[in-house]
Amino acid sequence: MTITLDQIKSLRAKTGISTMACKKALEEADGDEEKAIATLRKKGEAKAAQRADRSTCNGVIAIAQKDGKSAMITLACETDFVAKNDDFIKAANDLAQRLLAEGEDADFSETIAGLSTSIGEKIEVKEKKVVESAAISSYVHGNNKLGVLVQFSGDAGETGRDVAMHIAAMGPKTISPDEISDELVEKEKEIWTEQLKKEGKPEEIMGKIMMGKEKKFREEASLLTQAFVKNPEQLIKDLLGDITVEAFWRFEV
């Protein structure tokens, strides 16, 4: 069968093996990536191939911004030790700059394969986002494990950064309560129903209690109706005033 360039890039990004070795392994495995990885392990290239099955639960977030564009990326690795390494953090920031310049279709496979080989861990890009807007505020937490981009209707100044920091800390699911999906609410209702039954609440007041719980859940999970993390007496919608939040993106390792 014909092996595509995308198949080769995918295997190379996961294993760090050379392009030709990846192509040959895929040909022997009839294009099956898992079989190709097994083939590589049986040969003298097993060390790098074994990285494909490892968990990348650590990493960093990097953001780049220029000329009305913003890019955010999650570069993942296996250990916290590598995530804290200055060279790894620099690599993430370099990739964010490339993402900003090349867009979300940018191909990082060669760079990732090289990083994986030099570091000795599985490395991968887990999330990436590019936004074109002059009204973007950003925030990266001090440990580089939380990053946020927020798009506003206009220049939000210092308030914009405060909102971005709030989103990093509180993790809202949506902008407003009416955007919370009914599916998510239904899942919560199943839990609330069981809790109320165990508490022995009378059937005649269950409906009213459930309505109250749903209202509270929607408000606590939505940005505009959350209490501002810096001032719990103030809601985010009051902090914003006439400024509108159009969208936000939150990446977390």
Task: Fill in the keyword field for this structure.
3-stranded antiparallel β-sheet; 11 helices; alpha+beta; 8 strands; Helicase, Ruva Protein, domain 3; Tetrahydropterin Synthase, Chain A; globular; 253 residues
In words, what does this structure look like?
The protein is an alpha+beta fold. Among the domains are: 5-53, Orthogonal Bundle (Helicase, Ruva Protein, domain 3); 55-132, Tetrahydropterin Synthase, Chain A. It contains 11 helices and 8 strands. It has helices spanning 5-15, 19-28, 33-42, 46-49, 80-83, 86-102, 109-119, 157-170, 182-199, 203-220, 236-240, and strands spanning 58-66, 69-77, 124-132, 136-140, 146-152, 227-228, 231-235, 245-252. It has a 3-stranded antiparallel sheet. Strands 4-5-8 form a 3-stranded antiparallel sheet, covered by helices on one side. A two-stranded antiparallel sheet has the order 6-7. A hairpin with a 2-residue loop joins strand 6 and strand 7 (231-235). Helix 2 (19-28) packs across helix 3. The protein is globular. 35% of the residues are buried. The mean pLDDT is 89.
